[in-house]
Write a structure and sequence with these properties.
The complex is a heterodimer of chains A (about 325) and B (about 525).
Chain A lengths: L4 H4 L5 E10 L2 E11 L4 E5 L6 H8 L7 E6 L8 H5 L2 E4 L11 H12 L4 H10 L13 H13 L5 E5 L7 H16 L3 E6 L2 H7 L2 E6 L2 E7 H4 L4 E8 L12 E7 L2 E7 L3 H11 L1 E7 L3 H8 L1 H11 L8
Parallel strand pairs in A: 3-7, 3-8, 5-6, 6-7
Antiparallel strand pairs in A: 1-2, 1-4, 8-9, 10-12, 10-13, 11-12
Helix pairs in contact in A: 4-6
Chain B lengths: L1 H6 L3 H11 L1 H25 L3 H12 L2 H7 L8 H34 L2 H6 L7 H27 L4 H28 L3 H24 L9 H6 L11 H20 L25 H29 L4 H6 L2 H7 L6 H33 L3 H5 L5 H36 L4 H9 L2 H17 L6 H19 L3 H4 L3 H4 L11 H23 L4
The chains are: A alpha/beta (about 325), B mainly alpha (about 525).
Chain lengths: ~325, ~525
Amino acid sequence: MRAGVGQCHVTPAIFVSGLVKTFGPTRALDGLDLTVETGEVHGFLGPNGAGKTTTIRVLLGLIRADAGEVALLGGDPWRDAVELHRRLAYVPGDVSLWPKLSGGEVIDLFARLRGDLDQRRRDELIERFELDPTKRARTYSKGNRQKVGLVAALASTAELLILDEPTSGLDPLMESVFQDCINEIKAQGRTVLLSSHILAEVEALCDRVTIIRAGRTQQTGTLSELRHLTRTSITAETTHAAQGLVDLAGVHGLEINGNHVRFDVDNDHLDTAVRRLGELGIRSLVSHPPTLEELFLRHYGDELARERALAHGDRGDRQ
Amino acid sequence: MTSAATDLTGTAVLTRFIAHRDRVRIVVWVASIAALVAVTAASVKGLYPTQADLDQAALASNGNAAAIAFNGPAQGLDTVGGEVAFQAGAIGLVMVALMSLLMVGRLTRGEEETGRLELIRSLPVGSSAPTVAASLTVAAMNVAVGALVTLTLLALKQPAAGSFTFGVSFTMLGLVFMCLALVAAQISENTRVVYGIAGSVLGASFVVRAIGDIGDGTVSWFSPIGWVQKTRPFAGERWWPFLTTIAAMACLLAVAGAFASRRDLGAGLVQPRPGRRTASPSLGRPLGLAVRLQRGSLVGWSLGVLLTAVAYGSIADSIDDFVRNNKTLADMFTAGGASLTQSYLATSLRILALLGAGFAIQSTLRLRSEETLLHAEPLLATPVSRRRWAMSHLLVACGGCVVLLTLAGLAVGLSYGLVGGGVGVVPGLLADALAYVPAMWLMVGITFALIGLLPRLVIAAWVFLAVCFIIGLLGGLLGLPGWLMDVSPFDQVPLVPAAPFKAVPLVILGVLALSLYWAGVIGLRRRDIG
């Protein structure tokens, strides 16, 4: 750490630099960087198989890094696992429970193992998430298993929450309960690492985000810094031949076929682009925000093609 | 008429699908039951070559309550067929009942519980078709068993009437338990509970029959196994007791149908008991969790070991009568200069320890399955170290080994003591059984070392146990070389009470177990989880 700068900065909750992890011939993490400041909600984004879960498992000390620097709450996640785990709570992406135990028993078990069972908070969360704690885990649906994991983690007083796609399988009502809970935790000054591929959730909750692909960090910054990534896809049919769009600012991937036009536009320039279309006379117009996958494919398409050509073979980048 | 026809739409296709999907399972079940009868028949012919031998065997069994309790009524024992029915009948009938109830549970409630039935029912398939297809398959298996048993005995030149009656007994009993399992499958939404209900009826049938057969046979009429044994194969056959099995099937099918029409897909007739709202105080430590996860399995193993031990112990006193006049059997049991009974007890304890080792391995492997099922991951993300997590399950495994051996020693001792040895033998046999503790712990150690160091090869633990079984049961018979016999930890334990007790081998086994435990801990600490 550089002198001067280091002294006035608090140690980040999570600091990862140049992290490498291979599974046999597969390079799951390939020099990944990630910094989560204390007190922030940090979005951890990437398509399936990008390495999000692998990174989290390194942070939890479940798997050992092959190379790179990893610090969690100022400690070494592999060596100091037990001590560090007193200070964090974790929700896996697919909560797998013991079929015979009830949801309430699982929640209590984890709270007691962490040593911070708060009965009142637990009961309140069970109510907010509308969870029946007496049902056996075998009979829970995917969404309800996820709620058990969430209540167990959110009921804790841990200073760091590591959440790996925690809302997969939750309905929109529960998604909003989850967002309320995270905002409360943020207000208490606690830190959250939120892995997700749901852009809307990340936009609603996160101060800063890190985007990874193929085990490498592609982008990291605040949401406004990242805003250029959010574009709208437009498909339109116009009365007059579509022209005069090429020189518009913020328009990408323009395809013109007579009166049919297709392009993506940065949200900052959406207004101008639609005005120009209006001048051409709109017969039909379809617009939708790109999914994260589309964004990645489009944004990094060139790089991907170059990599494929170089590697000449598929890289099974599973998590 | 039309509604019944549409109800069964797709039955033929589903039946063919089941037969194809489960072809290996079906063949193994049917063939192993038929093989059991064939092997018994061949060995009866070998063991009792003359009519005089058969007469002697009949005389020994006629007054042997333990043998009757285990095998069934002593009828026609002076014939080869009657002797086969006595030796292989009880176990064969239990197997055919087990086959039927396990297959029905798997094909009906098992399919429903996993959600596969929902997928099938969304197709143009009649509402009864899946159940009928499953029943047709299991019924065909039972007919095949009966036919193979009959043909085997006919091939060995046994009387046709007896062979046929014995074969049909298998089919009929299997069908009764198939119908019973169909009822059980309507009651609970959990396949394991279905097995539990049908299995308990099977266990009760066996016990009721045993009590009846020791007495004048009246009580046996309350047991389905009793019904089919009342047809007296090879001992003046009579057909009418089969009518009771047919009546039972009709009643059970009617009940199953009534239950089925009263419930929804995926639900049971009995709603499952809700779980606890909060965890009990013991469920706050890894050990509490391990005990909770494994107690059901330990209870099951305990019952199995207990029943086997009682069976072994209760015939120990009559072992002399049983084999006195039979050179082949006598050679099998006598080791060194010890008495026949002492050798028999020592062999029984060793077999019980080998059985218990199955628990030792299964219980230790729980660590691995917890890992692969991703249950370990959130647990290890709490302040629980890998060693403490491993210790929790290893303590259950090691403690369970002691429980099983204690039960084995007490049960062998008490049952032998009560039938003639005197209860004074109990402490000695208990101590002898506990001599196997270090060998069992070594099996735990071997399994745990594999989990820590070579997690992908944990199956090797089972292979090693199979090798130990072969060495322990057949080593002498096969004439295996000494170095190979030494591989089995169970053969390192002195053959107490037939041989004098020695402490040194036990200490060595214990030290080996401890070193393997440390090797496992080191491996587990160094490797990735999952």
